[in-house]
Amino acid sequence: MMTGTQYLASLQDGRTVFLDGARVHDVTTDAGLGQSARIVARGYDALHRPGPDARNPVFTIPRTAEELRARCELLTKHDVTLSLSAVAMALLTSSTELTHADPAAGERIQHWFDDCATRDVRFAELITDAKGDRMLAPSQQDDPDLYVRVVDRDSTGVVIRGAKFHTTAGPIVHELVVLPTKRMKPGEEQYAIACAVPADTPGVIQITSSHHARHGHPRDKPISAKLAIPDSMVVFDDVHVPYERVFLDGDVARSAVIAHSLGLWERLSGVAHMAHLGDQLAGMAQLVAEANGTAGISHIKDKIADIVIYATMTHACLEAALANSEVGADGMLLPSELYTNAGKLHAANHYAVMVRHLHDIAGGTIATAPSFADLANPETGAFVEKYLRGAKGVSADERLALFHAIRNMTADEWGGREAVSWLQSGGGLFAQRTVTRNHYDMAHAKATARALMEPIDD
Ligand SMILES: Cc1cc2nc3c(=O)[nH]c(=O)nc-3n(C[C@H](O)[C@H](O)[C@H](O)COP(=O)(O)OP(=O)(O)OC[C@H]3O[C@@H](n4cnc5c(N)ncnc54)[C@H](O)[C@@H]3O)c2cc1C
């Protein structure tokens, strides 16, 4: 297994990354991206075990309910790059079906997966295409490159062109896993491509963002400092991919199989994270109410109760998803589609309302609080200390910590990114609603409704 130091060294591979209009020659030393890389490096150190047989537990294929639960717990304790291993789970889950058209696909996936486990690498998921006009199919767009496609091939591999959007962690992982965003139609074979591309491959260009504060007092941004990972637009400017890294090539009938499977693993991780997030929102709401002296007011108690119920319902969906898991074709345990999707939809759908409650409870200082640097400044510190105090015994330092945490979590650049992410991640609300409906037992529901209409049998 890699240590954090080895992981950081592994990123110094000449990959092509741009940030804020300039080329980043070393992502580990950039002011923003370097902070993200160090978050991941700390995770590597926390998981590291010595010896040639040691293996990151995220590569364990869950075969029992305990292993599936352990996987969820592992993901919530670490940065998001570990959760992005969902893409490897999705490939494994899909491999049996992919071998119908390509008998060696399963072998290639397994070989790639084992190699990734041995090298202890991290993944990014590249599904979301540029898409152009959303109402037009890939082959109908005025530019054929608006969905990633194969533009050439030779005896050794394919050449791909196009761009994938919103690629979380792209600049600081090793494997960029490209999947078709949806089912392709006959005639769109060039778009039915799934493959794994090393991040330093020539022609791969990442235009990225960083959500880290690059100035200011470190206590002003306590959450992004621990969690913020960049998102990239990844351009494939005629990139050669050897066949051993190609998992789907022209099979339009099965082009959506991997994305569907990824949806399940992504949303399971989303439910697990959001259950945890619900607890954090509830805790933050209670703490700030106590600090402000408002914890006994009835409308504040009602709003905190709403957040508590939100967190509890999300936990309940996670439990139901695990309890109703099913064994897949290869013995891998798959969480329930119904409860996973309903849980993710519930959590994403109501997140904005819970944040509104938190903002309402906390008050406007979450937006306007002075910096910790102002508390430390001898010219202003005494004023901040005197006027930022809250309920009896609650210091300005304690309240500032709460206000900055809530701002960082929900109301600044990182908080805004998180709000959009919880809504859109795992394919967005529409996809989660559709999958939930498709897995709901409507025949049973209709039968129960009909039973209500039956006259009493005297
Ligand atoms: C912070 C963040 C991180 C992300 N990380 C990743 C990642 O790592 N990898 C990855 O691949 N993706 C990632 N995503 C992408 C995410 O899955 C997409 O944002 C989501 O699928 C929506 O796609 P879009 O952004 O292109 O919006 P659009 O497709 O433009 O959708 C916008 C709205 O239009 C609706 N819509 C669009 N087309 C249609 C249609 N034909 N019929 C009906 N409704 C339609 C959608 O349902 C939605 O309501 C991330 C997104 C965010 C915000």
Automatic annotation (TrEMBL):
- The HpaB/PvcC/4-BUDH C-terminal domain covers 261-453
Q: Which UniProt keywords apply?
A: FAD, Flavoprotein, Oxidoreductase
Ribonucleoprotein in keyword set = no
Q: Oxidoreductase as a keyword? A: yes
Domain HpaB/PvcC/4-BUDH N-terminal, chain residue ranges per copy: 3-248
Q: Which GO terms describe its molecular function?
A: oxidoreductase activity, acting on the CH-CH group of donors
Q: What is this protein called?
A: Unannotated protein
